[in-house]
């Protein structure tokens, strides 16, 4: 038996503010700092809430007149609580916003954010160590001091000898070495029976939150000198992904520099669910919170992981990981 949802249209800001207690998904463009992104979202929420009907100023009682005759009692608005005196009703300090990943300004892609009580869900998602899918673009033939195309070029080399098959071979070798590292982090010998039983369960989550782990890396586009990689990993950071591109270039006997890092999926959420910059408004964030809540309700185990292996979730979200293909 399906439960029919009831929608209520409100004009007051107070019930809307109380409903801002969940997670939502946004798409952060490149060259935008995380703190600037956070301030923009909170300022937009304050602006939209203050444009709605807010509570009136508090009242106070005034007794006027002479003491030897009948006194008059008046109830007036308190100027000490007027918005022109104390400022708008909703201010940035009223919001608490957190994210599952503090994304660097060089990285673009989706971010799962939590607002107010939604920070608890963000913390649970962090503890679950969900995998993230990245599309990393590189440039052959040059190296920079910060492993990104915005840095100073320190070396140039030829790349005409590099073929698609060479990149695929190196990617396979890098993936195998990281899979061996996955068993080392579990504290088992790769030649033991325990390692065999763990391998049957599939890829494993790392126990240490400070160590990144790569599950899959493959070349999805090759147009010399440009190429693109699809990387599936967890607990990663921007320099870790840039170093992968640099090490790939060294293994190819040339140089390679990262030119783009884009996060296309974070756990159960992908970029088709994310809000663009023009949609960072109260109305779109409320709709996105409802959609994210429905995805989490269909997959409650994503908040409390009981299996050390990465499992495929059920449901109608159609955003299941593809690391087993």
Automatic annotation (TrEMBL):
Residue ranges crossing the lipid bilayer per the database entry: none
N-terminal signal peptide: none
Domain Pseudouridine synthase II N-terminal: 107-235
A biological-process GO annotation: RNA processing
Gene3D superfamilies (UniProt xref): Pseudouridine synthase
Domain of life from the UniProt record: Eukaryota
Cross-referenced SUPFAM superfamilies: Pseudouridine synthase (SSF55120)
GO function terms (MF aspect): pseudouridine synthase activity; RNA binding
Similarity comment: Belongs to the pseudouridine synthase TruB family.
Name of this chain's protein: Putative tRNA pseudouridine synthase 2
Organism listed in the record: Habropoda laboriosa
